[in-house]
């Protein structure tokens, strides 16, 4: 797909992006059609592997996949029962430990008492009567001693202590569960608050995006209808062909028709005049040719410009000097809402003077960055717009100010 360079030059960046998207869609469409046609003509046989691997599920007597869910069997304990069983065992172990520690404390106390009585200083290693002393001085291993001492523990006391410890463990677990539930509720409230803020932010973004789309749509509707339909023409092979198929805008039949149009429709709106001085604007020119505009702008610095009445459309042309000394020409379309550049998504201005003032700071196109800096006025007397104005007094005042308006910074 190919687009003529001069056609691309007439488009702004947004229209170029739309054109590139359309071209890319067409390329993808053609590529898919080519791939489908190629696969239809050259089918690829599917490879079959004899050593293919697979997974075979174990099935039960009913033919379904066998599975086991904990807690569903009649002999399975529930989670609460498992926790309670574990806590009972933990309570029993703690109770036994406390009872054993109590016995050891009594044993140490007995040792101290016997030591004060001098019994431990007697040397009776083989006497049966000193069996208690032998047990105290020659202690067996802990496991044997533990089992031996458990024989002297009161079972009722052990069960009572186990119940007390179990209740404490149960209360502690309930407290932890309650704190966990509170923490979960707090985290849930924070999450809901974050979700609410996220939804509000998302809704705000959607509103902004919708507003931007609406503004873009309205601005696109206000732009010239001479080029945008060509971008939507899907039947044309190229943009150039689409532009050729467009109906041409009405062209003035003669120079006198342009003069009559300006006098009847534009002069009453103050077009071409400076509202501050009520005199013709320093950049305003009459019906002059493109060659004449190039001659007036010759050797002028970048940013110099003039506005002339167009011979091609019912509107105007801004002739502008770029950095390399060449001249660009931008058509200004006259529409019911006001004035705008032809074929661009520019802002519509109520008056021509407002459009020129706006582009003293805002570029005409983002690519070219054309800022209107220096107005190039008249170089002859009477001025080239003499045939357009009906007031001879205005013409005389304008002619007297020609030297100061020949080259003026706005």
UniProtKB/TrEMBL annotation:
Source domain of life: Eukaryota
SUPFAM superfamilies: SH2 domain (SSF55550)
SMART domains: SH2 (SM00252)
Keywords: Coiled coil, SH2 domain
Keyword Coiled coil listed: yes
PROSITE patterns with a match to the protein in the record: SH2
Coiled coil: 78-105, 170-218
One Gene Ontology CC term in the entry: cytoplasm
Annotated SH2 domain residues: 283-376
Keyword Signal among UniProt keywords: no
PANTHER family linked to this entry: SH2 DOMAIN-CONTAINING PROTEIN, T CELL-SPECIFIC ADAPTER PROTEIN TSAD
Name recorded for this polypeptide: SH2 domain-containing protein
Species of origin: Syphacia muris
């Amino acid at each position: 797909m190919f687009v003529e360079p001069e056609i691309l030059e007439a488009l702004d960046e947004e229209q170029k992006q739309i054109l590139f998207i359309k071209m890319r869609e067409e390329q993808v469409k053609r590529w898919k059609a080519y791939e489908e046609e190629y696969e239809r003509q050259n089918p690829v046989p599917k490879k079959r592997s004899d050593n293919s691997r697979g997974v075979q599920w174990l099935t039960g007597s009913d033919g379904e996949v066998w599975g086991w869910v904990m807690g569903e069997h009649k002999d399975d304990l529930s989670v609460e029962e498992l926790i309670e069983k574990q806590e009972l065992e933990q309570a029993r172990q703690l109770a036994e430990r406390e009872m054993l520690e109590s016995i050891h404390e009594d044993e140490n106390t007995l040792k101290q008492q016997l030591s004060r009585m001098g019994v431990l200083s007697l040397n009776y290693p083989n006497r049966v009567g000193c069996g208690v002393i032998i047990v105290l001085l020659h202690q067996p291993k802990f496991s044997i001693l533990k089992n031996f001492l458990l024989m002297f523990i009161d079972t009722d006391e052990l069960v009572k202590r186990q119940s007390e410890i179990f209740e404490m463990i149960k209360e502690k677990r309930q407290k932890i569960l309650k704190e966990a539930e509170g923490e979960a509720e707090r985290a849930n409230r924070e999450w809901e608050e974050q979700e609410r803020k996220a939804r509000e932010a998302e809704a705000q973004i959607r509103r902004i995006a919708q507003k931007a789309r609406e503004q873009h749509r309205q601005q696109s509707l206000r732009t010239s209808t001479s080029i945008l339909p060509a971008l939507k023409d899907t039947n044309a092979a190229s943009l150039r062909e689409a532009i050729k198929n467009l109906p041409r805008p009405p062209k003035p039949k003669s120079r006198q028709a342009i003069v009559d149009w300006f006098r009847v429709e534009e002069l009453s709106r103050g077009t071409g005049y400076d509202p501050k001085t009520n005199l013709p604007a320093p950049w305003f020119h009459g019906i002059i040719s493109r060659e004449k505009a190039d001659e007036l702008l010759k050797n002028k610095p970048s940013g110099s410009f003039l506005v002339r009445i167009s011979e091609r459309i019912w509107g105007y042309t801004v002739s502008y000097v770029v950095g390399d000394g060449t001249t660009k020409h931008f058509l200004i379309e006259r529409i019911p809402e006001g004035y705008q550049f032809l074929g661009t998504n520019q802002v519509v201005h109520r008056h021509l003077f407002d459009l020129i003032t706006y582009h003293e700071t805002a570029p005409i196109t983002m690519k070219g960055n054309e800022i209107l800096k220096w107005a190039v006025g008249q170089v002859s007397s009477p001025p080239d717009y003499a045939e357009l104005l009906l007031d001879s007094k205005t013409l005389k005042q304008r002619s007297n100010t020609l030297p100061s308006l020949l080259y003026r910074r706005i």
